[in-house]
Write a structure and sequence with these properties.
Pfam families: Amino_oxidase (PF01593). The chain is of the alpha/beta class. The chain has 14 helices and 20 strands. It folds into three domains: 167 residues, FAD/NAD(P)-binding domain (3-Layer(bba) Sandwich); 119 residues, no CATH class; 115 residues. The protein is globular and about 60 Å long. Flavin-adenine dinucleotide binds next to helix 1, strand 2, strand 14 and helix 14.
Length: 462
């Protein structure tokens, strides 16, 4: 691990902090608070990493969960806050950027390269989003205070770029993009876990802003987990695995662990889904099925050899309206968003599914049907059947440690609350803070790290 720089903050008023949940958000914040001199303990019910974990399939190691590292400037801001010089993650550009999008109107690589018939339309689209580019890291990492001139400037740039359109589909419609590009752009609203009709317009700009800078650590996504844990260890953070919190006494800073042990801290931070926290506080858990973001079935397959597929293929649903109606009703959509990541003999097929907590395995008829569609569109019939082994992580898996039904990005917020402009409930009660996917809208690595940077600063100001 790198040495701390001279910029390390003085450990003023060290406190004992208990963090609930050892996903990326919990361990990222733990490192930041440890750096400020606090004595930090992370309580994790299972294994550290949350949605990012290692599984072995057919003798091959896979890193589950996130596979695309976008907006790496947020990671650099995180390292800078820690006073770390250099970057042990060794982020490498991912070949093909955001991947080849197989829309019903034709295939769209993102970014669209020069010489491609869609290149001029892509450049016009990119130009529309560009004024936001210098401000995006600010929006992701700065407490949303309109009294802060830096945040105000970034918000103004967001308003200018989105042009007053509330939703991703309204923004896409207003730009009159060619149908294939419009469909491919709309697909990325699903990074908020929502159909483009329900996602904030910012999500329609994300491909333009992210496509040129998609990365992955040289040794795989697991390096992010290892690095965060090492950064925390170097700052005295203790991560207790297999330590499930079953009750939280917010005002008293107390928590109970499964098995009966009681712990007390000066400060508690929940890095859990907010609905889970509500349950631990003894409050009603409100999560109607139609107000959840999507879940998924992640299939990790060990192939006998290379698949020959590009690094990333994206297969959107043919009709977002049909898809939206199905997932809101908790029904399996006739065709769903599939992301396919190929890396030598490793294949990951991520199928979007409604957040109903179902245990959908590789042999479920719907999963088989979706895999068949993927293989047909990619021209690789029978690819998954040729695998030496396949492991599936279904909505039931994501529900076990996350939002009810396994909603990957938590509750679906109304569109006007879903972007970075709305102040989130970072402070749940005196002495009880929140971070993580369900708090910083949209989730994903940049939002989770950005949310940790925001809460670190807000705690320091109290
Ligand atoms: C299939 C898939 C693909 C994805 N792809 C991408 C991608 O390409 N790029 C990207 O940026 N993001 C991606 N994401 C999203 C990203 O993985 C998540 O946003 C991020 O990992 C969430 O981190 P978190 O810490 O907020 O939550 P989690 O990872 O859910 O962590 C919460 C932790 O709390 C623990 N916990 C729960 N209850 C308790 C309790 N009572 N006591 C103690 N511990 C408890 C859980 O076990 C878990 O470890 C993907 C997610 C999935 C599932």
């Amino acid at each position: 691990m790198r040495q701390r720089s001279a910029l390390s903050p003085q450990p003023s008023a060290p406190r004992s902090v208990g963090i609930l949940g050892g996903g990326l958000a919990g361990i990222a914040l733990a490192a930041l608070l440890g750096h400020r001199g606090h004595a930090v303990t992370v309580y994790e019910r299972d294994r550290a990493g949350g949605k990012l974990r290692r599984v072995t399939v057919g003798g091959l190691d896979f890193d589950t969960g996130p596979s695309l590292f976008t907006f790496p400037d947020v990671w650099r801001a995180f390292l800078a806050r820690l006073g770390e010089e250099g970057d042990s993650l060794d982020l490498r550009p991912l070949p093909g950027g955001l991947g080849l999008h197989h829309t019903p109107f034709g295939a769209v690589p993102m970014p669209v390269p020069p010489g491609h018939p869609l290149h001029p339309a892509w450049e016009a689209y990119r130009a529309a989003a560009q004024p936001l580019a210098p401000h995006l890291t600010t929006l992701l990492t700065t407490p949303p205070h309109l009294t802060d001139p830096i945040f105000r400037r970034a918000s103004a740039a967001l308003f200018r770029a989105t042009g007053g359109h509330l939703t991703a589909s309204a923004w896409v419609h207003s730009r009159r993009l060619p149908p294939a590009l419009a469909h491919a752009v709309g697909t990325h609203a699903l990074n908020a876990g929502l159909a483009p009709q329900d996602a904030p317009s910012l999500y329609a700009l994300i491909p333009a802003l992210a496509a040129g800078d998609v990365a992955r650590p040289a040794s795989g996504m697991g390096a992010l987990l290892d690095t965060l844990l090492a950064l925390g260890r170097a700052r005295g953070v203790r991560v207790l695995e297999g330590a499930e919190v079953v009750r939280v006494g917010a005002g008293r800073g107390s928590l109970s662990l499964r098995g009966g042990e009681e712990r007390r801290h000066d400060l508690l931070v929940s890095a859990l889904d907010p609905a889970r926290l509500a349950g631990l506080l003894g409050r009603p858990v409100r999560s109607p099925a139609h107000r959840r973001t999507v879940s998924g079935v992640a299939l990790y397959a060990a192939l006998p050899g290379e698949s020959g597929l590009p690094a990333t293929s994206v297969l959107p649903p043919a009709d977002f309206g049909v898809f939206r109606a199905a997932v809101r009703a908790g029904a399996l959509p006739p065709d769903t968003l599939a992301l396919v990541h190929a890396d030598g003999p490793r294949l990951a097929v991520l199928l979007t599914a409604p957040a109903t907590g179902r245990d959908l395995g590789p042999d479920h008829p719907w999963v088989r049907g979706q895999v068949g569609r993927v293989e047909h569109l990619l021209g690789v019939p029978g690819l998954l059947a040729s695998a030496r082994d396949v492991v599936a992580l279904p909505p039931a898996h994501y529900a076990a440690g996350g939002h009810p039904g396994g909603a990957i990005y938590g509750a679906a917020l109304p569109v006007w609350r879903g972007g970075p402009l709305h102040p989130q409930t970072y402070r749940r009660a005196p002495g009880l803070w929140q971070v993580g996917t369900g708090v910083h809208p949209g989730g994903g690595i940049p939002a989770v790290l950005g949310g940790a940077l925001i809460v670190d600063r807000l705690i320091a100001q109290t």
